[in-house]
């Protein structure tokens, strides 16, 4: 658990920092509210422990700022006996608890253990929900040789951390394959964040991908995390990546090369740990030849290419797909089956939209 300690009394700050580190907590400490807010802008913390009385910026100001930035962050207030009423008021604003000086370190550690236990339960629930979601959405359905080879390819590719470019017609299952890559990888317990580059206006593309700082433009009243930051530790799926404007292609290339982003209005780059999976329904090499897509970005994305076959080329998958969708949707109507004649018609159909 990552903890930020803000305490102006040097002895108290050093003592608490050393005590908490011995208990296995990751602690960053500072002496002023301004320094604490600077650290909060640059890094995420699970818990903030702050003295109520600080020079210039007090603990209540910090509490409000923390809750405004990330309501999930816990805050513990340290206070002198004379200011207990203010500390109680802090609880109403959203503080987890408060401690009156002097206090035994064991009391603080007990609070932290409770918070840590809560984090563990929330994390386990999140993982369970992710597994259930993956079971429903990430299955690659099909019995054809083409699909079986695809599944084996996905399992092998998932173990590597390179960028992947998926090419296939609309409806061939590009996002399904991207989700399968994620769920088979070591990143499976981190976020899978899908976005469609074709639906984001060009004027918003940079701020949506990289986020923006408070005051970056009119209406930017607080810091906004972009898609890259939301996918931290996990996988970012960029569908219709061919629709990225050329100016954004340059910035995406830099992110892939440097593994860092700079939010709009920001002056400091932030390191990121995100696997990028791109997808396109067009021939990107043709776009490169027509100067509509950067060649250097294409090769950076195309480290591991996966090409998906249209349904008309793998008709052996149709019975399995029909059965899958019948059990998923048809059971509600009380008749999860079709006749052999209808199945034959489905197999003989060309499926111009594939599975859509």
Strand content: 5-15%
Distance between the termini: 43 Å
Uncertain residue segments: 132-137
CATH superfamily of the largest domain: P-loop containing nucleotide triphosphate hydrolases
Summing up helix and strand content along with how strands pair, one would put the structural category as alpha/beta
Q: Let me know the average pLDDT.
A: 88
CATH architecture of the largest domain: 3-Layer(aba) Sandwich
Question: Class of the largest domain in CATH?
Answer: Alpha Beta
Number of domains: 3
Question: Using DSSP, what is the number of strands?
Answer: 12
H/I helix tally: 14
Shape: elongated
Instruction: Provide the spatial order of strands within the biggest beta sheet.
Output: 2-1-3-4-5
Tell me the helix content.
40-55%
Helix and strand sequence: EHEHEHEHEHHEHEHHEHEEEHHEHH
- The CATH topology assignment of the largest domain is Rossmann fold
**Largest sheet data:** 5 strands, parallel
Using the CA coordinates, give the radius of gyration: 26 Å
What does this molecule look like?
The modification 4-aspartylphosphate is found at residue 51. Keywords: ATP-binding, Nucleotide-binding, Phosphoprotein, Transcription, Transcription regulation, Two-component regulatory system. This is Sigma-54-dependent Fis family transcriptional regulator. The two termini are 43 Å apart. The longest helix is centred in the middle third of the chain and has 33 residues, at 105-137. With 356 residues, this protein is α/β, with parallel strands linked by helices. The protein is elongated. The chain contains 14 helices and twelve strands. Helix 2 packs parallel to helix 3. The protein has three domains: 2-119, Rossmann fold (3-Layer(aba) Sandwich), CATH 3.40.50.2300; 138-309, 3-Layer(aba) Sandwich (Rossmann fold); 315-348, no CATH class.
């Amino acid at each position: 658990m990552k903890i930020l300690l803000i305490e102006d009394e040097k002895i108290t700050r050093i003592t608490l920092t050393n005590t908490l580190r011995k208990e296995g907590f990751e602690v960053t400490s500072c002496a002023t509210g301004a320094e604490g807010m600077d650290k909060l802008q640059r890094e995420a913390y699970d818990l903030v422990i702050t003295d109520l009385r600080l020079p210039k910026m007090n603990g209540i100001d910090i509490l409000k700022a923390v809750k405004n930035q990330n309501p999930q962050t816990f805050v513990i207030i340290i206070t002198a006996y004379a200011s207990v009423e203010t500390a109680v008021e802090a609880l109403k604003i959203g503080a987890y608890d408060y401690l009156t000086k002097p206090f035994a370190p064991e009391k603080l550690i007990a609070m932290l253990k409770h918070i840590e236990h809560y984090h563990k339960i929330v994390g386990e629930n999140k993982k369970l929900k992710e597994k259930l979601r993956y079971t429903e959405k990430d299955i690659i359905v099909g019995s054809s040789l083409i699909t079986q080879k695809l599944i084996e390819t996905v399992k092998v590719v998932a173990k590597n951390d390179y960028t992947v470019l998926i090419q296939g017609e609309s409806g061939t299952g590009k996002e399904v394959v991207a989700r399968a890559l994620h769920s088979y990888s070591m990143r499976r317990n981190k976020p899978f964040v899908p976005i469609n580059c074709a639906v984001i206006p060009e004027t918003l593309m940079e701020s949506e991908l990289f986020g923006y700082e408070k005051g970056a433009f009119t209406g930017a009243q607080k810091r906004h995390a972009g898609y890259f930051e939301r996918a931290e530790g996990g996988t970012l799926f960029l569908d219709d990546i061919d629709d990225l404007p050329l100016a954004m292609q340059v910035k995406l290339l830099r992110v892939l090369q440097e593994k860092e982003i700079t939010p709009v209005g920001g002056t400091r780059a932030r390191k990121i740990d995100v696997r990028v999976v791109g997808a396109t329904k067009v021939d990107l090499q043709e776009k490169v030849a027509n100067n509509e897509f950067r060649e250097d970005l294409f090769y950076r994305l195309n480290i591991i290419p996966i090409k998906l076959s249209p349904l008309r080329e793998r008709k052996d998958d149709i019975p399995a797909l029909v059965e899958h969708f019948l059990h998923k949707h048809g059971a509600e109507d009380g008749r999860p089956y079709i006749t052999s004649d209808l199945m034959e018609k489905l197999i003989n159909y060309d499926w111009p939209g594939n599975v859509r």
